[in-house]
């Protein structure tokens, strides 16, 4: 990396020194490979590869469109696959085992005593939940039973009130007249009050000869005897639309 040294005796007004408010035309190289390699050699540790297990990709990553997720993920996958194959070869060359044997038994992080306490706690929580649900169900049943008893009592009271009202109505109702003795004539008279008799059948004023003669005399006058008039005047009821119109006019 290039550096610029300023002597202490140099005047600040020298044109070779850029001021803060002036744009510097000097361009610095960002990816200075020679300087980076030099610094890397200085800080590098001389240790075996097993200690670092770092692998550099053989080909640089060239992604045309960094916003393309598929292309980017495919590049990462290729790098990881290459590093895995190369690292496996180096581990096998070094004689370092990295595969788990078939009879491998991994000890649990938590002891059996700790797991038994957790199991007991879970069982207690489950039993507590079941007990609370059962208690809630019993409360609901008691509530419905109490409501049913109250409804039954109300129904019984209502039926009693109906029976009492019916009894009062029966007491206030007049007794039916018996068809015996003096009441028999009254019952028969009331029963056949609207039946025809010989007298009522013969008493028909429309067939009286006097009325017929009088009707023939005044046959031109329809209002004198409506029954003898040839044409009856029937006032028809207006239609629905007309009735609604009349109601609106009245309002």
TrEMBL record:
Comp. bias regions, Polar residues: 194-203, 217-227
Keyword field contains Iron-sulfur: no
UniProt entry keywords in alphabetical sequence: Coiled coil, Nucleus, Ribosome biogenesis
A single GO cellular-component term on record: nuclear periphery
Transmembrane segments: none
Pfam families cross-referenced by the UniProt entry: Ebp2 (PF05890)
Localization per record: Nucleus, Nucleolus
One Gene Ontology biological process: rRNA processing
Family the entry assigns: Belongs to the EBP2 family.
UniProt protein name: 8522_t:CDS:1
Native source species: Diversispora eburnea
